[in-house]
Amino acid sequence: MKALKWIIGVVLLILVGFVFYLTVVFDPNDFKPQIIAAVEKQTGRTLAIDQDLSWTFFPTIGIKAGGISLSNPKNFSEKQMVAVNEIVANVDLLPLLSKQVKISQLKLDGLQLNLETTKDGRTSFEGLMASDEGQGGKTPADASSQRGNIMLEGLNIGGIDISNAQVKLLDSQQATENVFTLESLTVGALALDSFAPITYKFNGKMPDMTVSSEGQGQLKISSDLKQISLKDFTIHNNLAGVNLPKGELKADLTTNIQLNTGTQTVAMVLNKLALADINGSGELNLSYGSKVPQVNATLALGTVDLDKLMPAAEANTTEQPAAATSVAATSVEPDLNGMKAVNMTLRLTIASLKAAGVTTDNWVINTKLHNGLLEVQKLTADLYQGSLTASAKVDGRNKLASYSFDSELKQVNLRPLLKDAADVDMLAGTANINAKGSGRSLIPENIKKNLDVSGNFNIADGALYGVNIPLMIRNAQAKLKGDLSSQSGEEEKTDFTSLTGSFTVKDGLANNPDLLMSSPLIRLSGAGGANLLQETLDYRLKTSLVSTLKGQGGKTTDQLAGVEIPLLISGTFAKPKYSLDTDALFKNKLKDETEKVKDKLKDSLLKKLGGG
């Protein structure tokens, strides 16, 4: 026993002497010049440690440091890349002997990170990124595998406190400055395989928007350090900017998140989403182990009013500079390189959707994004007592994007759809429309120019608004009799039982070569088209009476029965104009009367010659 006591006493004496040497004789600040010189030699940067380093060894091993900064490369506008006001870390010494980490305090205050991109493309990380050779030939996967082998018997953190951390992003190429500030991040007492409370406050300032965010939840780290869980994580976001509806937008969500570094996956359950007036829920699964991450997501939304989410119109729309800027902005092809950065499948359902004044219900959209090719494999929706079915592709693999689509409208009530979508009140009926097309470029004007479409339509039990063809014919009949007065007071509408035809769109021109309209009174046929760029109409049609005009304000008469009556449609989409080609009408009538006279002369001649 005495020998054992002597051994323990000697060990304790050695430990006390060692601690005395490190704390009294050995001063870590003596090595500050060597550390600063080594950093400058390796990186060409200036490292500053303004405050003295202080150590603790028993019962905790820890360090306290402050006034640390690392400079940016020369000729950068921000002199410092990294600056830290204070770092405090204390780890209990004795638990380390049994592979247990017990941190009594972990604190970081006043972190300042200035990341800059110069006009010539240089960044703040220049000269800091380690090469493959510097890693001894090991790949990131090898390093990850080695980290995965770390095992701890226990981890206890008394608390984590990060405050006043700021990241400033300066881009001289884009002339932008974004500042993000983590006001606070606190984690309560944390142990492996146990949940600990976590809270944060964050704000950001961007050129056209500011954002503030705060959240709270429960954090858990697994004993093998491979799984991190966030439970009941509630986030409240507030955004403000001129391009937001009414200048501001609120977005709140409650979620559970599971990160697994071993399988390199993230699973997220979105229990609740509230974006402005939109509510929803969903799931997201991310696999980031491959070169291109894979995302699989489902999202269910309630009522969505996109019109409310559009920015308010500017008060003064006559300012030429603003208009010029808007035109310039829409003349640039969107950069779709981001479509190659991730592969994704998404199933989206929307209970009700309003966009550009059009209200639709029961949306189901299945999409797939792979290697820059976006496919809308299925799109269905209910609209205006009918349905929409469509599929589409957008190819972002080339600099100039291309697209294609195939769509079908069934039993759609056409009049309210046109009024809501384009404020056009010219056509009513139950419509069936098929359209298939393709195009290149996503600039709005180029879409009209490059669109190549073919399709057909069939509209039943409808009406043309803005024109009363029977009334126009009656007025024409009156003129033939010498009555130059015109009837009026009736509704400007022409009823029909069917309106059919096919159409093509190419080079900004829509062509309809076989329009046919039938009704109990008239038959209308012909061809025409529309200029999509100028939004104008040009139709030349032929109208003929079936028998009489009785039934739509007319009296029984057959004076023009069988005579083709030319009808012209011109004007714009919003204000079409209808007119009879009177000259052609008189020519046709004269031709018809001439033929009748010829027939009478033939009959009379035959009778005189004894042939009758």
Could you outline the blueprint of secondary structure elements for this entry?
Layout (H helix, E strand, L loop, with lengths): L1 H24 L6 H12 L3 E3 L4 E3 L3 E12 L8 E13 L7 E10 L2 E6 L22 H9 L5 E4 L2 E12 L4 E12 L2 E2 L4 E11 L2 E13 L5 E14 L7 E13 L4 E11 L2 E10 L6 E12 H4 L10 H11 L12 E13 L2 E13 L2 E11 L2 E10 L6 E12 H9 L4 E14 L3 H7 L1 E14 L3 H12 L12 E14 L2 E10 L3 E10 L4 E10 L19 E7 L4 E5 L1 H27 L4
Parallel strand pairs: 5-7, 5-8, 6-8, 17-18
Antiparallel strand pairs: 1-3, 2-3, 3-4, 4-5, 4-6, 7-10, 8-9, 9-11, 11-12, 12-13, 13-14, 14-15, 15-16, 16-17, 18-19, 19-20, 20-21, 21-22, 22-23, 23-24, 24-25, 25-26, 26-27, 27-28, 28-29, 29-30
Give an overview in words.
InterPro entries: AsmA, AsmA-related. Residues 2-176, 200-515 form the AsmA domain. It comes from Shewanella yunxiaonensis. It is a single chain. This protein is of the alpha+beta class and 612 residues long. It has a domain at 406-580. The chain is built from nine helices and 30 strands. It has a 30-stranded mixed beta sheet that branches. A hairpin with a 2-residue loop joins strand 18 (343-355) and strand 19 (358-370). It is elongated, with a radius of gyration of 39 Å.
Instruction: Please identify the structural class as seen in this structure.
Output: alpha+beta
Q: Biggest sheet, in brief?
A: 30 strands, mixed
Count up the helices: 9
Radius of gyration: 39 Å
Average pLDDT level: 80
Q: Please state the overall shape, judged from the principal axes of the Cα atoms.
A: elongated
Fraction in helix: 10-25%
Number of strands: 30
Segments where pLDDT lies below 50 for 5+ residues? Answer: 130-150, 314-329, 551-558
Distance between the termini: 156 Å
Report strand %. over 45%
Transmembrane segments: 7-26
Pfam families: AsmA
Domain AsmA: 2-176, 200-515
Keywords: Membrane, Transmembrane, Transmembrane helix
